[in-house]
Structure formats: structure tokens, C-alpha cells
Amino acid sequence: MFYWLADLSGTVSFFNLFRYLTVRTGGAMMTALVFVFLFGPWIIDHLRLRQGKGQPIRADGPQSHFSKAGTPTMGGLMILLGIVVATLLWANPRNPYVWIVLAVTLGFGLVGFYDDYLKVTKQSHRGFAGRTRIGIELLIALAACLAIAQLGRPHFATSLAFPVFKEMIVDLGWFFLAFGAFIIVGAGNAVNLTDGLDGLAIGPVMIAAASFLGISYLSGNAVFADYLQIHYVAGTGELAVLCGAVIGAGLGFLWFNAPPASIFMGDTGSLALGGLIGTVAVATKHEIALAIIGGLFVLEAVSVIVQVASFKLTGKRVFRMAPIHHHFEQKGWTEPQIVIRFWIISIVLALGGLATLKLR
């Protein structure tokens, strides 16, 4: 919306500011932050009134979690609302990448919302049927990847770019749709698995969003992309506005989610945010960099896969409990210790992922 004010710069030179991506990204960040701060308490009170007993606590989970009984879930709603409002106000509405990423975010958010709704109404940690949920996510992701493939340059749009090697790209052809959908769905569910402690998921999400804010800005700028010798993807710079909105909304949410949490993110937020980051990675051709930057999410997902596979094949568990953050809880680490240490790991991994932009 504000982007259109730039058309008035011929009359009032001040409005030329709205042409600058940096200004609009900062504006989106502050708008999302203020929105969540202002409306967060009302949303929490409303959800608490509606949900009654709040999110059910797993009977086989860590004992320390039983003290959290009654805490409302679906806190992702306040994050999504902040992101949507900030994006509509500050992003360029003519940019198709903005609408693709926003559609995936809201689509995954709806899937997560229904999952949270079933858990709350049935007072069970078992929500949406796993295969059905994954199937819907795949359909959304496939549609997004098809749109991304049609927007980009022929052949390059369906290619996989490798970090460090500046000229190494592999055209995946139609397989790009399956690969991209796997990245988006995998990112959504990996963030979902990470969301198990107060503040644990939102910190790394903001770190990943900050990393892809920089990546999208550089990839969408022909001059910077040429200087860094990374692949230029026209139009993806506008995704920096969405990433900025994620950071702002995430900071606002963390205010209420900090231990002891007043509200949980729920699948509503974790699936949506993971899907958003995954889609930005696919659009900017930095899927492999996502695996490094979001390495903590990968670790959480792999820990569950290893645990399940090991138990089915050998009858033994590799970890005391999966995902891996519960393993450290069982070893005696306090919740703040796990959260802060995992944040540190996320920062280190993000720096490693961003280093690939220069190591060419």
C-alpha cells in the first residue's frame, strides 16, 4: 500500500523514500512488532477464554511440562496477523513472489490451525491425521513451486544452485517441483518439531529470517549479486520485506512466549513460519544454504527420524526422548539452558550459511 505513495514522489519528494527496499523492510519489521505488542494481550485472553484447558500436555513427556497445563496455544495467529498486516502495508503488491510466499504461509497456517483446533477440542496431542496433513502441505508446496518455476528464467528457474561453486548449477527439470515441495514441506515440519520449549522455535526462526532477509535482498539486486558472484533472481529482493515482518512479529511474540510462556506458538505458527522460510529459500535458489542456516531444524527432524527408525528396527532408542531438545531435558539441562544454547548453535550455523555467499 505504502509502495504506491512512491508514485507521488514527482509532487512530494518525500514519498520517494517508499521506493527503497531497506526503508520498507524496516517499516514492515516495526509494523509487525507494534501490531503484536498492541493486540497480543487481547488475542491471548481471547484464546484462553475459548480454549479452557489450553494445549494438552503429553502424558509421556518431561515431568516439568505438567506445570504448563492450561497455557493457550495457537499463538501463531498473532504472528501471522502481524506478518500479513505488515506485508500488505509495505511490500510491493505488484511482485508475484510476495503473493506466492504469503499464500504458502497462510496455507500452512490453516493446516496448523486445524491441527491445533483438534488437539484443543479433543484434549489430545494427536491432531490432524499425519498423511492427510502432509498431503495437503505437498499440494500447496507443489503449486508454489510451479508458480516459481514459471516466473524465473528458462532452465535456471528449475535448477539447483550449489553454494561455494559459483558456476555449478544442475537443471532438475520437472523434478524441481518435487524437490522444491520437499524443501518447503520439510522446513515447515522441521520447525514444527523444534517448537517444544518456551522460546525455542521462535529464536532460530528469527535468525533464519534475518539470514534470508540478507540473501533475498542480495539475490534480487543485480549489482550486489554480480559482486558476490551469486545467482541473480529478479524480483526476489521484495521478499526481504516479508522476512523483516517475520523478525518483527517474532520479537513481539517472544515477549509473550518467553519462559514462563503466556501462550504457545502451536502448529498454527510453526508450520506457517517454516513454510515461509522454505519458500523464500526455493525462490532465491538457496535451498542448500537453508540446510546450513536452518541446521538446528534439520537436527531436530533427523533426531525424530533416527529415534523412530532405531526403535522399529532394533527395539532400542538412540535418544532418551525425541526430538533432541527433550533428550537434553531428560539429561538434566534446564529449559533456559537448552533454549539459549540452541539459539547459539543457530547463530553459528547462520553465520556459516551466510559465509557461502562470499566463498566462491
Notes on the protein architecture:
This protein is mainly α and 360 residues long. The chain has one domain (2-58, 95-355). Helices cover 64% and strands 2% of the residues. It has 13 helices and 2 strands, in the order ααααββααααααααα. Strands 1-2 form a two-stranded antiparallel sheet. A hairpin with a 7-residue loop joins strand 1 (159-161) and strand 2 (169-171). Helix 1 packs parallel to helix 8 (239-257). The longest helix has 31 residues, at 21-51. It is globular and about 60 Å long.
Write the layout of secondary structure elements.
Layout: H1 21-51, H2 76-90, H3 96-122, H4 130-151, E1 159-161, E2 169-171, H5 175-194, H6 202-219, H7 222-228, H8 239-257, H9 266-283, H10 287-293, H11 295-314, H12 324-330, H13 335-355
Antiparallel strand pairs: 1-2
Helix pairs in contact: 1-2, 1-8, 2-3, 2-8, 2-9, 3-4, 3-9, 4-5, 4-9, 5-9, 5-11, 6-8, 6-9, 6-13, 9-10, 10-11, 10-13
Poorly predicted residue ranges: none
Q: Taking Cα atoms only, what radius of gyration do you get, to the nearest Å?
A: 20 Å
Q: Into which percentage range does the β-strand content fall?
A: under 5%
Number of contiguous helices: 13
- Helices and strands, in order, run as HHHHEEHHHHHHHHH
What about the largest sheet?
Answer: 2 strands, antiparallel
What is the percent of helical residues? 55-70%
Q: Helix/strand/pairing class, anyone? A: mainly alpha
What's the average pLDDT? 89
Strand order of the largest sheet: 1-2
Number of domains: 1
Cα shape: globular
The termini sit apart by 38 Å
Question: How many E strands?
Answer: 2
